[in-house]
Amino acid sequence: SFIPVWLKQKKKLLTWCNSHLRKAGTQIENIEEDFRDGLKLMLLLEVISGERLAKPERGKMRVHKISNVNKALDFIASKGVKLVSIGAEEIVDGNAKMTLGMIWTIILRFAIQDISVEETSAKEGLLLWCQRKTAPYKNVNIQNFHISWKDGLGFCALIHRHRPELIDYGKLRKDDPMTNLNTAFDVAEKYLDIPKMLDAEDIVGTARPDEKAIMTYVSSFYHAFSGAQKAETAANRICKVLAVNQENEQLMEDYEKLASDLLEWIRRTIPWLENRMPENTMQAMQQKLEDFRDYRRLHKPPKVQEKCQLEINFNTLQTKLRLSNRPAFMPSEGKMVSDINNAWGNLEGAEKGYEEWLLNEIRRLERLDHLAEKFRQKAAIHEAWTEGKEDMLQKRDYETASLSEIKALLKKHEAFESDLAAHQDRVEQIAAIAQELNELDYYDSPSVNARCQRICDQWDALGGLTQKRSEALQRTEKLLETIDQLYLEFAKRAAPFNNWMEGAMEDLQDTFIVHTIEEIQKERKKERKKACEGNKSKNVRQLVPQRDQALIEEHARQQNNERLRRQFANQANVIGPWIQTKMEEIGRISIEMHGTLEDQLTHLRQYEKSIVNYKPKIDQLEGDHQLIQEALIFDNKHTNYTMEHIRVGWEQLLTTIARTINEIENQILTRDAKGISQEQLNEFRASFNHFDRKRTGIMDPEDFKTCLISMGYNLGENEFSRIMSIVDPNRMGLVTFQAFIDFMSRETADTDTADQVMASFKVLAGDKNYILADELRRELPPDQAEYCIARMAPYTGPDGVPGALDYMSFSTALYGESDL
């Protein structure tokens, strides 16, 4: 389909052929005629391929010509080109269509096919090259090899990008394609030795310019700028190296920030967990327990994840550094993984006793509340009983009483003394409760002590008053009895007073009647007392059912507590072993060698999914645990698992699966970077497992030393220390499988070196020993150019100029110990 176009453009093809034949000191006038004997055709192929062809036949006969053309066609075929229906006879006979087809085949193979940008095909490679070179030019958009070039700006942009001094690009206009095309073609011919193979009028006047013609012409630019191509390759290598460095620096920054944040959170949290200042009320302590529960369920889990992520980032970074031939990352002072592990250990130490302390405090406050209530009840009963007793004891009613009244008062007082003695027990109980409240640090002890003191002081006063009244009554009784005695003496001795005595006897008779009334009053008093006792028993009758009700409620509460215990235990006894089993299975997957690393990764990701899906069961258990704590249940004989066991196990499980997945990912990184086969990997794993005697997936230094000796290493202390510094740069005192693979395959990685980067900078610098900021900005993407400019030291060599930068020390620093 392309032949009619090419027939019209024989002149362009002729120009292309001559641009190459000129290098051999010859040219042709007519394509169909001048290639017929095969001699110029063979010469053209030698020039563009840089190879020697078989010796040509010098005879003039048709057979000699066919032989030469066949040699040319055989050479083309030897380069993997299929020559469909092109035969030597047609070329010798001057068949224009076949000859032009053959020339196009040569162009396609030798001018275009060798173009490869990032492993694409020739056509795509050339298109990609054009797009990259013209990317900075806003009004150029190369999408194909026909209409994208019609306005001529694409050609001008290609020239300006490589030789800006040849074209004043700013003056070109999109709406003036003829000027643009002719400018490009003239400049290319004059300064770049690229023949005019295209015609501006043809391109502007055709709806869709010929694709193959433009492709051939553009390929001439690609070859003309192959020197610049070297610079691009150098720039690409530098970009790749810098990208690795920038990514590693970002990972280092992320690690440092994450480590700082985590350590700061731990620093803030530990004092809170170490604060053992109790609150005064149950409500306040319950709030503390609630806060701790929030900490364990909401605030700590993300930090567990951050800590795990930190270790993963650290391991991935160290793997990438090893694979890119960089020194190991040493975090800043106090931010090593071991520092974080120590801080975390302190956090868990502080946390360990906290919940236990909270529960003991709540238990103490519950006991205190109970005691305080008991104290208040007993004190109130006692105070009600003592009310009015002091006034009663201070009455002087005995001063006007008769002997019989005194005797009655004495009996009444004796009854009171018995009552008082009976109350001694209650006062002692009140004092004992107050004492216990003091010993248990009850917050309201001062008011309890004051009340207790009042009760004791009053009790002592009552005792004193009772004693005084008793003595006064006894004195009065004695006095009245003495007076009575004197009356009798007087009666015997004073007969004249007999009459009066009879009157007195009558009076005494009256007194007897009065005495009987007193006895009646006594009975009434007794009745009243009985009535009181009857009332008391009525109160007792009322209290008994209340007491029964309280006992029934307590029984129901204890039954509910037992149900909660069993509910928690049933789940915990399933979840605990499940976590343990999963931990063991993950350990096995990472140590055993079933299938490829990708198979292990898939297997582990499925595990991770099943573990994450298990989370609702943990949440449900947390809910049951909360109910248990709110019910103030402190023991559970149905399970050995506490909520803390389960929480810690769950956190370890999540951390272990994430860490194991990361280890496998890093092994894949290492395997791919170093081209390690599955067989080699299996051998490494078998050796590692053999010497990992504890079956932990980690070798300690002694095991590693034994392993090295078994492989024939002649190890002195210094040599072993040197090797340990390679496999354990952060001095953790262990050798991971990842580090083991790195060490075993350390010579095989295909990595860039400082020398290669230096050589690339030398290309960009035009062979100078220094480079200028403008050169870096011209050759590298903006962020990478600025990265270099900010970090390169000034060049101090004798051949330096102002603003010269030292790319050599910079290249060395990329691979050595430095702040980069």
From TrEMBL:
Q: What is its main location?
A: cytoplasm
Record has Repeat as a keyword:
yes
In this chain the EF-hand domain maps to 679-714, 715-750
Keywords noted in UniProt: Actin-binding, Calcium, Coiled coil, Cytoplasm, Metal-binding, Repeat
Q: Give the Calponin-homology (CH) domain ranges.
A: 7-111, 120-226
Stretches of the chain forming a coiled coil according to its record: 241-268, 406-440
Its GO CC terms are:
cytoplasm
* Keyword set includes DNA-binding: no
Q: Which SMART domains match?
A: CH (SM00033), EFh (SM00054), efhand_Ca_insen (SM01184), SPEC (SM00150)
Q: Which PANTHER family match?
A: SPECTRIN/FILAMIN RELATED CYTOSKELETAL PROTEIN
Family classification: Belongs to the alpha-actinin family.
Q: What is this protein called?
A: Actinin alpha 1
